[in-house]
Structures are given as structure tokens and as C-alpha cells.
Design brief:
disordered N terminus, 14 helices, 8 strands, 2 domains, Bacteriocin As-48, Chain A, 40% helix
Amino acid sequence: MSPASPSPEPSSSPAAAVSSPSPSALLLLAPMEGLLDHPLREVLTAIGGVDRCVSEFIRITDQLLPERVFTRIVPELLQGGRTRAGVPVRPQLLGSDPSCMAENAARVATLGPEGVDLNFGCPAKVVNRHGGGASLLREPELLHRVVAAVRRAVPAHLPVTAKMRLGYDDDALADDCARAIDEGGANELVVHARTKAQGYRPPAHWERIPSLRAIVRIPVIANGEIWTVADARRCRAESGCESLMLGRGMVADPGLALQIRQGSGDPPDLVPWRRVLPQIALYLALVTQRVERKHRAGRIKQWLHYLRRRYPEAQQAYDAVRTINDPVALAARLFAPTFPETP
């Protein structure tokens, strides 16, 4: 699925008071189909601050997938299940057949990940039409059977984690779904604090998460609409979660995890553009290895589109390459010695 366009800038009103998170608080990098995949995981984890990544979903239907499918989507499995910066990546499975999900989870577990993740939140129409993603939030009993089957199939030392939204059309079954995931044997739950119907429209309803935390025994991680350090503070205060999952906010501000972790600066210090630009060059090199030529320039422009939320230089770069579709010409323009200006 293609992620929604960035939402308007969050309010600059002071964040709610909240105590400092414990040293065990985690910052996770979210999966985003068509955007936050292997190349961008490599780049963002190299900048720092991220404890763990979740891969974009691997669609499970009615067959046992060959190993090459898992390693194509999660090439980190070929290097110890980690990015080159050493950050672990959990493959994420998406499907609704308990037996088939279990079979495929067992296979991916043999490839050396440090855990397996389950997708119960994807809002894409094509996914939900075929019984995957957020569509399972209408059937807590099936949700439980999927989690339980995967948990039985995966070696006990490997965590099984899950991500859900608050519901499909509304949040009436949110408690039942969270309980089903917990009782099915999951070790951790990420809650994207919006329903499938709400998509990526702000706000994220972090205030709904405490009631879910109260009925499960496993750690809960908050996700949704965390663009700034102030957002992270408000999310922690409203959700009661110390650990957070970051998605579009990290794409727009590659240093966001570092800023949240350091909790310093007013406003927090951005990673300077002179450090981001070489990462864009690395990203293009990685995209060149994995993406068809006709789509490469689009991927660079897509990232620049997010980066311009934070960087005037990204706006300048985006304007300069917006009409260029040839990746070689785009690189020549973007990485010319005199452009863009760096402080």
C-alpha cells in the first residue's frame, strides 16, 4: 500500500508533562509498504536511535513460500537478521489462514530473525478485500487463532509480536482484539491509534490506548502521528506507553529517534543537511540495486517530499529534480558539487 501524504504540521503547543522514559523504552521503526523498506531501513538505522525495525508485510495466502521470497523482502535475513548498522529487523507476515500463517512463520523462523511480527493493521483496500490486515479486527476469534497457531509454530525463544489498529470501522472491538492477541500468545503489541476507516488522517487517538494496556499482560507500544519530540512526549503522556513506533515522522526527520532519545534541544537539533545528503546518495545506490529503473527517480522524489517538512534544502532539491525522471540525470543534478548549498 502507498502511505498517505504527510499531514499538516503538528501544533506547537507545549507538550504535556511526562516523566522521563525508563532505559528499557524502545523506539521502533515502522513498516511502510512502498516507502519504508530495506533501502530506507539501511539509511535510517545508520543515522541512529532506532532499536528495532519491522519489515513491510509479506503476503501469506494459501501456500508455503520459498525462502527466496522472505529474503527478497527482508534481505537483512542474509546478514544475521540485522541492518548493516546492527539493528534487528522482524519479518512481518500478513494473512488470515491460521495453518498457512503458522507454516510460513515456521519457515521464516529458520532464516535467523530475532522474532516474527504479524500485521493486523494494514488499511489497504486490496489487502482487506482478501481478508488480510485490518479486516481481521472484525473477527477477534480468528485473530486469536492466527496468533496462537503462529506462536505454536515458532520456537519458544523467538518473540511473536503483532500490530493492530483500534478497529475496522470503529473501535467497538478494540478490547476484544487486544485480548485475543494477548491470549493467543503474542509477546508484544503495537497499537496504531486509529481505525482502518480513519486511515492516516490526524489525529491519532493515543488516549484510547490506556484501556487496552489495562486488559493485556504484554508490553504495548504506541504508534501513529509522531512527527516531533513534542508529539512523542504527548503520546507517552496520553497513552501511558514508554516505547514508541515511528513511521512517517522518521522519514521526514531522519534524526527523530535520536532527538527523542536525547530529549534535548528546544527545539531539538535536526541532523544537519550536510549529513542527510550523503544518506540520500546511499539510498539511491540501494534503490538502484533493488528497484526497476523507471521507478528509481520517483523513490528519491518521494523521500525528498517528506524531508521538505523539516529541511529548506530538501524543498530546494525537490524543486530542482521534480520534473526529472531519469535516475542518472537526477543524481547528477542532486549531487552536483555546488547544489544544494550546505552550511
